Amino acid sequence: MNDNYTNGCQYRVDAPYPPVRAEGPNPIYACDILSNVGGVVSEMSDVALYFYNSVVTKPQYDWIAECFHHISIVEMYHLEIFSELALQLGADPRLWSGRTRKLWWTPAYRQYPLEIRALIANSMEGEEAAIRKYSEQAKTICDRNIVAILNRIILDEKRHLQIFSEMYQQV
125 lies in which domain range? Predict the structure, then answer.
């Protein structure tokens, strides 16, 4: 992944990602990880939101648009990691989630404010929700490989939260 630094801003933590490897199939863990792919709080939700934010902020705030663009690329990499992990755990890594009944991912999972401070605050709330969710998963999952992946991705999400907090202060 080469999108670490752009224009002096670090969009992901400068640390390697653990190998994407589960100890073996596990339907419970598969559902948890699949929710990180296509659930309400998921990488797909963040990719869609940050893509949108990049487009709508570009006319007035080019530097903010660029940040959202590069962060969306990091989130796409997280989406790929969780998708590969879900597959290894025995799930079909479509953009859906649920244990017994699958619900397809929808852009309606997120809000899309246009006012710049609300837009950034909404993004911060999404990062905070992801950090809480992945932290809880890291506490309950007993596969150390998955826990290492979750903890590494949490570092990136905390970095994104920091970027958004600084951005919020500047507008």
Answer: 24-97+111-170
